[in-house]
Amino acid sequence: MGGLVDWVVGWSQSPSGMVALFAIAFAESSFFPIPPDVLLITMALIEPETAFILALICSAGSLLGGMFGYMIGWLGGRPLLHRIFAERKIAMVKQAYEKYETWAIAIAGFTPIPYKVFTLSAGTFGIPFRPFVVVSAASRSARFFLVAGFIYLWGESVRDFLVKYFNWFTLLFMVLLIGGFVLLRLAAGRTKHGAVDPVEESVED
């Protein structure tokens, strides 16, 4: 993973950096393991004035990649999901859709929970395509523009800090990413053992 992160970051100095950012954001939405945030942050730190343009490119690539993942799931169905993900994770995602509908996509799109799990499964489970696109666009854009805004406003003051501790920063990001998978597993375990949803419990009370 470290070598892959270095490869992604290496595109920040390339004339084709923006193309690479779009391609990585596209690929990460369906199969690529490294989040595009790593390259977005690096490129935005180099040229803070382009931060919002980079966020727009990242958002567009991620949205189109999510739509591509949706189509893969729709065409491949459950056999594809079973080949890529564990049964427990698939069952948890399905129940998340049944309970929270498109809000599940919004959470995955904005947080470290792996977005690709939800793009592929959305097509497989037949989640309506238009709401999927709208919610994905909103959540992914919010995530990338938040990063861009932070760097645009405070880029100069945090530049040295992030450059000096960039390896630790990327490590933290990867921990959060892995933590997303752990959250999926824990949620699956709670659902499997019949945990009561706090919202439903409050309604019943």
Report on this model:
The chain is an all-alpha fold and 205 residues long. It has one domain (2-204). It has 10 helices and no strands. The protein has helices at residues 2-10, 17-28, 37-46, 51-84, 87-100, 103-110, 115-124, 129-164, 166-192, 198-204. Helix 4 crosses helix 8. The longest helix is centred in the last third of the chain and has 36 residues, at 129-164. The chain is elongated and about 45 Å long. The N and C termini lie far apart (47 Å).
Brief summary of the model shown:
With 205 residues, this protein is an all-alpha fold. The chain is built from 10 helices and no strands.
Number of strands: 0
Binned, the helix content reads over 70%
The gross shape turns out to be: elongated
The domain count comes to: 1
Derived from helix and strand composition plus strand pairing, the structural class reads: mainly alpha
> What proportion of the residues form beta strands (DSSP E)?
under 5%
If you average the pLDDT, what whole number results?
78
Radius of gyration: 18 Å
Distance between the termini: 47 Å
Which segments are poorly predicted (pLDDT under 50) over 5 or more consecutive residues?
A: 195-205
The helix count comes to 10
The description of the largest β-sheet is: none
What is the H/E order?
HHHHHHHHHH
